[in-house]
Amino acid sequence: MGLISFLSTLPTLLPVAPLPSYSSSRCPIHSGTISCKIDDAGSHEINGVRRRDVLNCFGAAVSMELVASSSPISSPFIEAANAADLIQRRQRSDFQSSIKMTLYKAIKANPELISPLLTLALNDSMTYDKPTKTGGPNGSIRFSSEIERPENKGLSGALSMVEEAKKEIDSYSKGGPISYSDLIQLAAQSAVKSTFLASAIRKCGGNEEKGNLLYSAYGSNGQWGLFDRNFGRSDAQEPDPEGRVPNWATASVQEMKDKFIAIGLGPRQLAVMSAFLGPDQLATEAKLATDPDVVKWVEKYQRSRETVSETDYEVDLITALTKMSGLGQNINYEAYSYAVPKIDFKKLKL
């Protein structure tokens, strides 16, 4: 829900009946609509409307547009629109925070599912077909006929965790059940964050308190804004077509590159998402490093992971995941919002 545009309220200018004499055209404004009243005198008329009056009325509309967007004194209906938008944003943000806490607890209890959760999100997204704009991160991987495909071997445990988390999340949601497509991508985000935090703890000699402080001070939490905003995907109602996702365990590096390029990514994103391609990141990177297009990126991110902040690695991974998690999706930015019950102050006992 955005600001109301005054330009969209311009009426069609048609000939009007003669009016009492005015020294100039007038554009009175009523309830946010610009109505142009034009005198019948003057030259350069088209269908009874002077060119100067058309320009004057258009100028008034532009002026009102600028006032609405920049003036600190907003009109009541703009204030109401903004207030409603802020309420929806707060509802979605609060709901997302609760989801992340649920996922954090589930992942902490099942750390062995971190790698499968990453691959689950990757494979759900990799069904995207750019020419037809079909597939993508739409939750289709939840269907038994898709999760049982060879490329998804070993991911059923991750899907089961997502399903259990969904039951809990739906139980406290006020804006309807969460989509599988949203939840699978949010689970991947939580898994990625857990790897970032684990790395910080390792650099602090296994001290969790110091590791948390290190990640808070130097970590990449502030880079997730766009990912979090893309919240409101719709679920597919049937499995995506077969043959769109490589089997990462057996695919050649060239096949991996071809798939990443086909969906609008490339060797750089392939390298930074190595943890998504299998349970052994170092083994995957050793394989990727045999390709001349990928090796420089593999080495770049390996060096970055040795630094205190891991900035290059973390920021590029977040950017790649954000792009991947939105492939082919029309985001409903009002999803999970809900009507706030009105309070009847007359019934309140003070």
TrEMBL record:
- Pfam families recorded: peroxidase
Source organism of the structure: Lactuca saligna (Willowleaf lettuce)
MF annotations from Gene Ontology: heme binding; peroxidase activity
InterPro entries recorded? Ccp1-like, Haem_peroxidase, Haem_peroxidase_sf, Peroxidase_I
Q: Which Gene3D superfamilies match?
A: 1.10.520.10, 1.20.58.1620
Please state every residue range assigned to the domain named Plant heme peroxidase family profile.
101-274
Give a yes or no for keyword Plastid in this entry.
yes
What does the record list as GO biological process?
A: cellular response to oxidative stress; hydrogen peroxide catabolic process; response to reactive oxygen species
| Keywords attached to this entry | Chloroplast, Oxidoreductase, Plastid, Signal, Thylakoid, Transit peptide
User: Where in or outside the cell?
Assistant: Plastid, Chloroplast thylakoid lumen
Stated name of the protein: Thylakoid lumenal 29 kDa protein, chloroplastic
Instruction: Give the signal peptide range.
Output: 1-25
The UniProt similarity line reads:
Belongs to the peroxidase family.
A GO CC annotation recorded here is: chloroplast thylakoid lumen
